[in-house]
Amino acid sequence: MSLRIYWYLSFIFCIFGLTGCTIPANVRLPADFWSQSQHKVAIVSVKPPKPSLYASGNQGLLDYAISSSVNHDFIAYLAKSDLSWYEKFPQNLGQQLSQRKVAVKLYKAQIPNELTNYAALAQETASNKVLVIKLKAIGALRYYYGFIPLGPALAYCSLSGELIEPQTRTILWRYQAKVMESVAGEWDQPPNYLNFAKALKEVTEKAQNELLKSLFNEKQ
Question: Which neighbouring-strand residues pair with 180?
Answer without folding.
Answer: 156
